[in-house]
Design goal:
Number of strands: 5
Order of helices and strands: EHEHEHEHEHHHHHHHH
Shape: elongated
Helix content: 40-55%
Strand order of the largest sheet: 3-2-1-4-5
Structural class: alpha/beta
Strand content: 5-15%
């Protein structure tokens, strides 16, 4: 997931304690929905204990389909939940923070998944936003890791890495989808039905990711292992190098990271 940040210190939540009874979402877009779905499927939080807010019903219907409660009031989310995840558009977040500031207490844990929003921005609004804020203890960090691991890998990083994480992981989803699509289209070109080609391409990416994560291999080692002298793979890799795949991918991550930093300065 891209850009998670932990929040205000709480003296009431033990480091290894249970998940909070209620989790709130301010913003109900794709990122918020994915996190909520992950929490529910992993049994971390019950659907009826999740409350999401958005200005219109357009995105709230996704939360309602999961069995979650919804509202149009951002303050209601803060008043009902101690753990609140802000998943608004970056340019909207400062105004939202100013709106909810009167109901934020020292018991709240606030998390921002908005790209390009610095810790200083949230601290100035009376809330501290996984790069941890100045007043965040290990218990809150462990709690958030416990929850967010339901949605995938969750690691604590220095704040300086957050924009890079946005370029690598947040935007990387689109980059990987583009590559998966291209893989499938190559197979279609050679005569394979489109639906089958896309399924195989996606499964290939999934299997490769599992090997990289579970076996701890460097990608270069795995790539070398599947390259036999004079075989099909090395011929294909040569074609990718001729097309500039590496340079184009590195440039894509760089461009997305720079854009995240620009958003943070606005």
């Amino acid at each position: 997931m891209g850009g998670e940040r932990s929040g205000v210190r709480s003296n009431k939540m033990a480091a290894a304690g249970p998940a909070p009874r209620r989790v709130g979402f301010v913003g109900a877009g794709r990122m918020a929905g994915a996190i909520a779905q992950g929490l529910i499927r992993a049994g971390k939080v019950e659907a009826q204990h999740i409350l999401a807010s958005a200005p219109t019903d357009r995105n709230l219907c996704h939360f309602q389909a999961l069995g979650c409660r919804t509202t149009h009031s951002n303050q209601e989310v803060l008043q009902s939940c101690l753990l609140v995840i802000f998943a608004t558009k970056p340019h909207v977040l400062p105004a939202v923070l100013a709106e909810v500031a009167p109901v934020v207490t020292t018991e709240h844990i606030l998390v921002s998944v908005a790209a390009g929003v610095s810790l200083n921005t949230l601290e100035e609004e009376g809330a501290i936003v996984m790069a941890r804020g100045r007043h965040v203890g290990s218990s809150e960090t462990k709690l958030l890791q416990h929850l967010l691991e339901a949605c995938g890998r969750c690691e604590e990083v220095p704040e300086a890495y957050v924009d890079i994480h946005t370029g690598l992981s947040g935007s990387g989803v689109a980059f990987v989808c583009a590559f998966s699509e291209a893989l499938a289209e190559g197979a279609v070109k050679m005569g394979m039905p489109s639906s089958l080609a896309h399924r195989i391409a996606a499964q290939t990416l999934l299997g490769t990711a599992k090997m990289l994560l579970h076996e701890g291999q460097h990608p270069a080692q795995l790539r070398s292992d599947v390259c036999t002298p004079g075989g099909t793979t090395i011929y294909g890799l040569h074609a990718l190098e001729q097309g500039g795949l590496r340079a184009a991918t590195m440039s894509a991550v760089e461009a997305a990271t720079c854009r995240a930093k620009e958003l943070g300065r606005k």
